[in-house]
Amino acid sequence: MELITVKKSTCVKCGLCSNVCPSGVLSMKENGPIAIHPNNCIACGHCVAVCPSSSIDNIKTPLANQLDLESFPIINSNTAESFLRSRRSIRCYKERQVPQHTLLELVNIARFAPTASNTQGLSYVIIKNKKVLQQATEIVVEWMEDQLKNSLSPHWSFSRHVKNYREGGTDTILRNAPHIILATSPKDFKNGIKNTISAFSYLELFATTLGLGSCWAGLFEMCAFLNYKPLLELFHIPDTKVITGAVMVGYPKYQYKKIVDRNPLEVEFID
User: Fold this and answer.
1) Whether 137 contacts 174, CB under 8 Å
2) How do residues 158-199 score in pLDDT, each as one tens digit?
3) In sequence order, which residues have a C-beta less than 8 Å from that of residue 71 and are 6 or more positions away?
4) Is residue 1 predicted with pLDDT exceeding 80?
5) pLDDT per residue over 51-80, tens digit each?
6) Nearest of 23, 30, 27 to residue 61 by alpha carbon
7) Which residue, among 149, 214, 156, has the nearest Cα to 181 in the 3D structure?
8) Segment 211-256, tens digit of pLDDT
9) pTM for the structure as a whole
10) What DSSP assignment string belongs to the chain?
11) Are 137 and 162 spatial neighbours (Cβ–Cβ below 8 Å)?
């Protein structure tokens, strides 16, 4: 099948589809757009989305699967600023489990995040079992203890986290979160971590609309990114894949009534 089809009776030959194509796939000819480099298509869907008369279709991003936007932008800048600034890293969670359908809704939004050249390439593992999470914390602590013993430059915080866990029974690794969400990608996929950062940013922002809190599991990630075998085996990560990110998720134990400030903006314009 051809990559694109054009309804010539409605095509106004405006050239927008070829202008927005980031990969030079399309060219506007006398009879309308044609795909001159179809193998370059990254399935971004720009050509279909920009057409003012819905005259072009793309087998990689079918018109039937695209949703109409009644207006753009969806929200005004003041609302967007308040929404973005209200997100906080949550490290104290209620013991209540998040329903599976809500977790799926949360992860589903992550796949709409921008990725390098629309490569996407991520899959997810959602851990609901509290005992498995406790095992994960133990494994990460054991890894940190090994780093403290054998590494020439262990991370400065490892001693504190190990002491909190061994002496006080306090989990500062996964914060007793009821769930963690792992992102994985094929081992040879070069954009895995880059795409995960984008995907999890979407996930974390969307979490607030579901009444959820989240926080990146940084210590867990340090261990996972080194492909520490006991951790990968715990989550049944196959040899063909790697963990590219981890986020804790649950219902926040506390509510925050203020939006905090950050360091002053530093910016430079070059004219």
Assistant:
1) yes
2) 999 999 999 999 999 999 999 999 999 999 999 999 999 999
3) none
4) no
5) 999 999 999 999 999 999 888 888 999 999
6) 23
7) 214
8) 999 999 999 999 999 999 999 999 999 999 999 999 999 999 999 9
9) 0.91
10) --SEEE-TTT-----HHHHH-TT--EEEETTEEEESSGGG-----HHHHH-TT--EEETTS-GGGPPPPSSSSSS-HHHHHHHHHH--B---B-SPPPPHHHHHHHHHHHTTS--GGG----EEEEE--HHHHHHHHHHHHHHHHHHHHH-SS--TTHHHHHHHHHHH----SSTT-SEEEEEEEETT-TTHHHHHHHHHHHHHHHHHHTT-EEEE-HHHHHHHHTT-HHHHHHTT--TTEEEEEEEEEE-BSS----PPP-SPP------
11) no
Q: In whole angstroms, what is the distance from residue 218 CA to residue 224 CA?
A: 10
Question: Chain centroid to CA 260: how far?
Answer: 24
Which residue is associated with the tokens 């279909």?
48
Residue type, position 199, single letter:
A
* Amino acid letter, residue 66: Q
Cβ neighbours of residue 222 under 8 Å, at least 6 residues apart? 155
